[in-house]
Amino acid sequence: MNLCVCILAAGQGKRMYSRLPKVLHRIAGKPLVGHVLDAAAVLTDSLPVVIYGHGGGQLKDYYADRSVVWIEQREQLGTGHALQQALPALPAEALILILYGDVPLLSVETLRKLLDAAASGFSLLTVRLADPSGYGRIIRDQDGHIARIVEHKDATSAELTINEVNTGIMAVQGRLLHQWLPRLGNQNAQGEYYLTDCVEMAVESGLQIIGVETQDPTEVTGVNNRLQLAALERAYQRAEAERLMSGGVTLMDPARLDVRGKLSCGQDVLIDINAVFIGEVSLGDGVVIGPNCVITSSTLEAGVEVFANTVIDNAQIGRGARIGPFARIRPETILGDDVHIGNFVEIKKSEIRSGSKVNHLSYVGDADIGRAVNVGAGTITCNYDGGHKHKTVIEDDVFIGSDTQLVAPVTVGRGATIGAGTTVTENVEPGRLVISRVRQKSIAGWQRPRKPQNAQ
Ligand code: UD1
Ligand code: CA
Question: Which CATH number fits domain 227-434: 2.60.120.200, 2.60.120.260, 2.160.10.10, 2.30.40.10?
Fold first, then answer.
């Protein structure tokens, strides 16, 4: 049977106190509803149906590039009402998987179990909670079959003691939803149209509902406020840390790691505390990441060592390179094997080939640097004239003395030497020594001016 995923995301999220719709708040750098959409995409190619309400414009703008069937629910009159709005978009001949846009951590594995159980026509995901208050309780008959769901506000004191609750996640044949949804009423404590009333309709029609119980409350936890958002973020990061450690990565402290994207690691990778990985990051065998590093969308090949407080963004780092401490590698940088980048060095949109070193206090932007080049402390590529960016080319085996400015566009030929303190404004031929600094004077018997006596 075809599968169609329907995501409820119309809730306002009042307790977030935010201008942003609740489902656009992020876990691991991705909106809550993005996690749900991604899980849906693993299960089926068919377009997800998303029911939106408050702040729907922002939601649709955010996902403008994604194929989604958007359904507006103008007033939030309950989960049943939300589904009623979506009904024309829900195929009768498909199985409908109902998910919540603010429940981000559901595993695909659990969803598959729920879908398998829906062969009967209707399956429901439940969980047992130590504190079930607020949730709809699962009422079972003498045979242990699900008979109905009673909302907390409608429940008797006996029913309130039940700790098996409705997660809200369910799989139902479209045909059945088309029969039941138009018949929902709102005669209950909240005056809402309850989707959960479909359970009783199913039982009345002789259908057995299969309950699937998850053992992991975190995966069915929704976000209503920023405390819950933070708690789920930590749960997500803990799971990510466990995944990495189980795969052979050493984490100096699994509680101080943040992965906001996809981190893949080779063998014997070591990650020190407070590392943040954003986007797709790949770390080769034996890579060591020092404390307090932020690495975004980059590839670090085997044996790379990154020292404390280094920021790397959209770069490719060759085998055995050593970077930092306190280095900043900016987008479109390609570093060859065994390149050394030291403290307080910024590299932007540059290629630096194998064995070259930029060890101290330098800015290298829009540059192409050859092999075995030594760039001295305090070297600056003057790449910007206020209007345009220009390129600096430094060929193999060049030695650049400290405190050099390279005014681009400029090329320093192979094997040339630039004396310390030089401002290079013209191309340098291979093998030359170039110095532009003023010759040193030496004045004997120089009297330094003195302060007058009694002056402060
Ligand atoms: C619902 C269930 C309850 C279950 C609980 C799990 C019903 C009647 N009750 O409770 O049994 O234990 O979820 O969290 O279904 N939403 C809309 N439009 C609406 C109302 C809700 O899109 O008009 C969305 C919300 O954005 C949210 C989800 O549906 O993602 C659940 O809504 P919420 O108000 O949190 O749950 P309840 O209806 O109280
Ligand atoms: Ca509600």
Answer: 2.160.10.10
